[in-house]
Specification:
This protein has one domain. The protein is 77% helix and 0% strand. The chain has 5 helices and no strands. It is rod-shaped and about 105 Å long.
């Protein structure tokens, strides 16, 4: 009887372990599938947002470059600059993708819209009140928003393992230099105004 009792107890333990293992697999499989699906949604959203941010950054660089070549009409005190910052393209309306995206990255993307409005307001105020500073403020605001968009795109690509963009024109470096140049010009202008 002992022999049969030991075998039966092992048999029941094996059935219980198999049932427990099967239950765990069935309980964890939907969680695994959900996490995998959310990861795919986040990667796809990150690719879309990174491309939007990179396009916006390029448009800001083009605005600065185009305004550098603007001539001053003979009857005007200042050049006729294009003063509107590029519009940020509409964000994807993929609710699941936004939910899957890292909250800090999503917040930075949404925050860029607010900063863009603030920059445009600063440009408009300078145009109305301080014309001599206008070019510098325009370049500074365009470069700052562009660099922020570029950083968001880079962070999205790093976070989700997306290959970096291959640039033919290194406009991030161009804009960093533009910010340095603008800061020097503004400092010189202020020194001349004080003197």
């Amino acid at each position: 009887m002992d022999w049969l009792g030991v075998e039966w107890s092992r048999f029941f333990m094996m059935i219980a372990a198999a049932g427990l293992g099967s239950g765990l697999v069935q309980a964890l499989l939907p969680i695994y599938r959900d996490r995998r699906m959310r990861r795919k949604q986040a990667v796809y959203m990150a690719m879309r947002l990174a491309a939007l941010m990179e396009n916006f950054a390029c448009a800001c660089a083009n605005l600065i470059e185009n305004n550098r070549d603007v001539l001053k009409p003979s009857d005007a005190d200042h050049p006729v600059w294009k003063s509107a910052l590029p519009e940020l393209p509409a964000y994807p309306e993929d609710v699941d993708g936004w939910r899957a995206l890292a909250p800090k990255l999503a917040a930075r993307a949404f925050g860029l819209e607010n900063k863009l409005h603030q920059s445009q307001s600063a440009i408009r105020n300078t145009d109305e009140r301080n014309k001599p500073e206008f070019g510098s403020v325009l370049y500074e605001q365009a470069a700052a928003r562009r660099l922020e968009a570029w950083r968001i795109a880079v962070d999205l690509r790093k976070t989700y393992g997306i290959e970096p963009i291959d640039l033919e024109w290194d406009y991030p470096d161009y804009l960093r230099r533009a910010l340095v140049t603008v800061a020097k010009e503004r400092k010189e202008h202020r020194q001349r105004a004080v003197a």
